[in-house]
TrEMBL record:
SUPFAM superfamilies, sorted: Porins
Source species of the chain: Sphingomonas trueperi
UniProt domain TonB-dependent receptor plug: residue ranges: 67-170
The entry's keywords: Cell outer membrane, Membrane, Receptor, Signal
A GO cellular component annotation in the UniProt record: cell outer membrane
UniProt lineage: Bacteria, Pseudomonadati, Pseudomonadota, Alphaproteobacteria, Sphingomonadales
Protein name, UniProt field: Iron complex outermembrane receptor protein
Endpoints of the signal sequence: 1-33
Subcellular location: Cell outer membrane
């Protein structure tokens, strides 16, 4: 997603000696020292000799030095030049880091997992400051950050007392450049075009996109004032062939074999538009004062057009279809069948998401004496997001009253099913806007649901103020100290509104009983001239219209079902953090030793507000509710780095860390259900007519005791070899399906007298309240191996060639308190991860290819009404490549040309069911993307 210029006008010179290593680290060290107290990396001697590296090679060397000089276990991605991370997007770059994987959503790498733990278990910082997100919960969607704006992206895998808001999986810290650290004025402009290999799948979609950016960096007033400004804009298209199966019941009409329950094939065309800007002002009028102000703004807008047909298939699940004789079975799964009496639901959907993110930070460093500094850092991060999720339905008649179809299903080699219909689904004389299956229901009555609209919106706000003192000791291996405190207040507001859409005309509230029309002709001006084909699954064409024009003529009725109303909530967290640490730097037994010893004390005041809602006798009642809780956590940490031999290090980290639960789990809201059909079933809680479902404002953070050990050998020329082992003991792990016994006696008065008497007689007023709770525990054990090897290490004849490769193994066992014998799968965990990059870069020419592979994992997807769902994602391998050239002399000096290709393996995203790879639930094919761009630096 980022236009990458080939490399800078000048070679980045990294001298493998003490003074030149300090120069190479000037940007990184200054950023650590000036921003929010994130641990600094001190320059070290890299041995004799000197080598000049540029572009991607320089980025790898810089990342190696960040890793080498930090006492924590850290891996980094560094920019090749101003405004140029090495890959298409931030998430692509991070996915090359050992132990880090990315889940693709909408064709883009978005959700990151670190060491087997998904995005809910890590935190993201911007210049050392915690960030809000435009997502539903805490996990950051990296699309909101234009990658041109960052100098380094560091992933801390161990903890330090001064690292505020560290996660238990890791902490991602996005670092902007510092203008005073730049050697000269720089202006860079870049433009890139994009094309997807597939022709546009929807007539109102596109396969072409672009990206443009500009960055300006300069210094003034005798190099005491620095300014960096960047702007970026992009239009990124994605074409997706989508297939979703409902599941696979044992179908009695087919010999009790597994049978496709239903399927929903789509073609989807996305267009992501984003523009943003950054500004950094850095002022250092004297050695006694240093001030840095950062600002980032990003506007994000994505439009999705989806068209497809839902086919309810299995008679066992009420489809009404009839399986014809002659179906075929392989190993207990029906792979081919013909069905008659099929009633399908045709879909023309439109989704639009708008999001804005703004982050401001101001850091001031006051030198109080020769050895003591006072640092004050203030920041504000704010994000808003609004979704418009429109579904429109069409078919042959209301509630299966129209013409029926005969279809043939047959399983393909990739696990999907081809569905070949008989009906012409593009014929407007047959297809009407209606509720083809009669699925519409408002909780008490049938409604003519010819469409549905979800309009969730989120607002996330975080303010933080941090202050610290640091100083030095003399004549001791304990070199320095730091004490500080941080206060933050985060408030996330989630609002969900939804509407039933029905044909215009008579009736009230879209109900059938009130006389609402059961169908509506598709407006002629809404029909598009080009009809969509689902040819990849055998459907030749379907009725294709503009869903927004149809929406403008349908009636909207507010959805006030309890489950919909109680999703509105506000979660507030006030966090007070105090910390103290000492830094060790000296010699022990003739060996160089560095490290830290520290303690964090974190006091939390968290609360939530919302409503409790219930439905009884057709009446929805809501009651506002608000409450809070307080707790304190103590988080000790220690890190050590011992240089046993020249450029050979052993590092160890031990720490207690925590990460807060999902925000939707901290909500206080509850949806109470009264099911009179359970009357007389007995006194067991699951047989009670009363139940409730919601969040838990008293949830505590996940806790983890971490031990990390790393052995690292650094090579001449900027490379290294590393082997890292890690262990995490997890406690207070959140069980999202936890249920608690509750006495619903207060609701007996809401029942009819006879029903209440039955409940009392059977003592059935004790029902289950489903709330998440900290009942889980477990362990994670893993190993990471990394090799960053420039071939010039072996011989100068191979100068310019090199590889960067890593492999990770992660094993885990997590159990919930309700079932300590059954281990659960952690979302985002792959047991095996591997990545490899081979590159050549010399004399202005650059070529490289990166292959990323991950084992199967539990994937998170957006389900019904935008609720999260989890399913097993199949293993996948993705190959990216690029080639480029930069003119290094003559009139074109500073001009670079770059061609890139993404997903050359055309790897689909696939999820399966029940551990059986034949039972494919989702299949998404994105195709290959090609990019061509130019950059000019002057």
């Amino acid at each position: 997603m980022v236009f990458s210029n080939f490399r800078g006008r000048r070679a980045a010179r990294i001298t493998l000696g003490a003074s030149a290593a300090a120069i190479a680290f000037s940007v990184t060290t200054a950023a650590f020292a000036q921003d929010s107290g994130t641990p600094a990396a001190d320059a070290q001697d890299s041995g004799p000799g000197e080598i000049v590296v540029t572009g991607f090679r320089a980025a790898l060397a810089t990342s190696a030095n960040i890793k080498r000089n930090n006492t924590m276990i850290v891996d980094s991605v560094s920019s090749e030049d101003i405004g140029k991370l090495p890959d298409v997007s931030i998430a692509d770059s991070l996915a090359r880091i050992p132990g880090v994987t990315a889940q693709r959503l909408e064709g883009r790498d978005q959700r990151l997992s670190i060491r087997g733990l998904g995005p809910d278990f890590s935190t993201t910082l911007l210049n050392g400051r915690e960030q809000v997100t435009v997502g539903d919960n805490r996990g950051v969607e990296y699309d909101q950050y234009p990658s041109e704006f960052f100098k380094n992206v560091n992933v801390y895998k161990s903890a330090d007392a001064s690292l505020i808001a560290a996660g238990i999986a890791g902490t991602v810290d996005l670092r902007m450049l510092r203008p005073l650290a730049q050697s000269q004025r720089t202006f860079v402009v870049a433009a890139r075009g994009q094309m997807n290999e597939q022709k546009k799948l929807n007539p109102d979609g596109t396969r072409y996109g672009y990206r443009a950016s500009a960055t300006y960096v300069d210094k003034f007033a005798g190099d005491t004032l620095g300014v960096a400004v960047g702007v970026s804009a992009q239009n990124t298209p994605t074409q997706i062939e989508r297939y979703a199966a409902w599941g696979f019941p044992n179908e009695s009409a087919a010999g009790n074999n597994l049978f496709l329950g239903g399927a929903k094939p789509y073609v989807q065309s996305n267009l992501l538009k984003r523009y943003g800007g950054v500004a950094t002002i850095e002022w250092q009028p004297s050695d006694n004062f240093h001030s840095t102000f950062d600002g980032l703004y990003s506007h994000f807008e994505e439009t999705q057009r989806l068209r497809g047909i839902e086919f309810p298939i299995a008679p066992q699940w009420g489809s009404g279809a009839v399986i014809q004789p002659g179906y075929q079975v392989q190993n207990g799964l029906v792979t081919s069948a013909t069905l008659s009496n099929v009633v399908a639901v045709q879909r023309n959907d439109y989704n639009k998401r708008k999001a804005e993110n703004i982050s401001l930070g101001w850091n001031n460093d006051f030198k109080l004496s020769d050895s003591i500094h006072f640092i004050v850092d203030a920041s504000w991060s704010h994000a808003t997001r609004t979704d418009f999720l429109l579904e429109t339905y069409s078919g042959t008649g209301y509630n299966s009253s129209g013409a029926k179809d005969t279809i043939k299903i047959s399983q393909n080699a990739n696990g999907t099913y081809s569905i070949v219909p008989t009906l012409d689904y593009s014929n407007t004389s047959v297809i009407k806007l209606t509720d083809p299956r009669g699925w519409g229901y408002n909780g008490t009555q049938a409604v003519v649901q010819a469409g549905f609209l979800n309009r969730p919106d989120f607002e996330d706000d975080l303010k933080s103020l941090r202050a610290s003192f640091n100083g030095e000791f003399s004549g001791s291996i304990v070199k320095s100290w730091e004490i500080g405190g941080n206060f933050s207040r985060r408030e996330k507001t989630s609002r969900y509104t939804s509407y039933f859409l029905c044909p215009p005309g008579g009736g009230t509230n879209c109900t059938v009983a009130s006389g609402t029309p059961t169908n509506f002709a598709v407006p002629a001006d809404a029909v598009l001239g080009e009809q969509v084909a689902l040819a990849y699954l055998g459907v030749p064409k379907m009725l294709t219209y503009d869903p927004l024009k149809v929406y403008s003529q349908l009636r909207s009725v507010f959805d006030n079902r309890p489950d919909s109303l109680v999703r509105d909530n506000v979660v507030t967290e006030k966090v007070y953090t105090g910390y103290a640490k000492v830094n060790i730097d000296g010699t022990v037994g003739g060996k160089a030793l560095k490290g830290t010893l520290g303690l964090q004390v974190v006091h939390t005041d968290q609360g939530s507000s919302g409503a409790i809602a219930a439905l009884q006798n057709g009446v929805v009642t809501t009651s506002p509710v608000q409450d809070s809780t307080k707790y304190t956590n103590f988080l000790p940490s220690a890190t050590f780095s011992l240089e046993l031999m020249d450029a050979f290090y052993v590092k160890m980290g031990a720490a207690q860390t925590m990460v807060r639960p999902r925000l939707d789990q901290e909500r206080i809201t509850q949806a109470v259900s009264i099911d009179l059909s359970k009357l007389g079933l007995g006194s067991l809680p699951q047989n009670s007519p009363f139940s409730s479902n919601g969040g838990n404002f008293r949830l505590r953070p996940y806790q983890s005791t971490n031990i990390d050990i790393s052995v690292e050998k650094y090579l001449r020329g900027g490379g290294y070899l590393a082997l890292t082992g890690f262990y995490k003991h997890l406690t207070d792990f959140v069980d999202p399906n936890n249920s608690t016994l509750y006495d619903f006696s207060a609701l007996l008065s809401a029942l009819p007298p006879a029903a209440a008497a039955i409940v009392r007689a059977q003592n059935a007023q004790f029902g289950l309240v489903r709330v998440p709770d900290n009942t889980g525990r477990g362990d994670i054990l893993g190993v990471e191996a990394t090799a960053s090897v420039p071939f010039s290490t072996f011989t100068q004849a191979l100068d310019g060639f090199g590889v960067f490769a890593s492999g990770t193994y992660v094993d885990s066992r997590v159990v919930y308190g309700s079932n300590a014998t059954q281990a659960v799968t952690i979302p985002g965990q792959s047991k095996w991860i591997a990545t490899g990059t081979a590159y050549y870069e010399k004399n202005g020419f650059q070529a490289r290819a990166t292959y990323r592979w991950r084992d199967s994992f539990l994937a998170e997807l957006a389900g019904l009404s935008a609720n999260p769902e989890f399913r097993t994602g199949k293993s996948e391998g993705v190959l990216d490549a690029q080639i480029g050239y930069e003119f290094q002399a003559g009139p074109l000096k500073g001009l670079a040309i770059l061609a890139q290709a993404k997903n050359l393996t055309d790897a689909p995203f696939i999820t399966t069911e029940a551990g059986d790879p034949r039972l494919v639930r989702e299949y998404q094919r994105y195709g290959r993307d090609y990019y061509l761009g130019i950059t000019y630096k002057f």
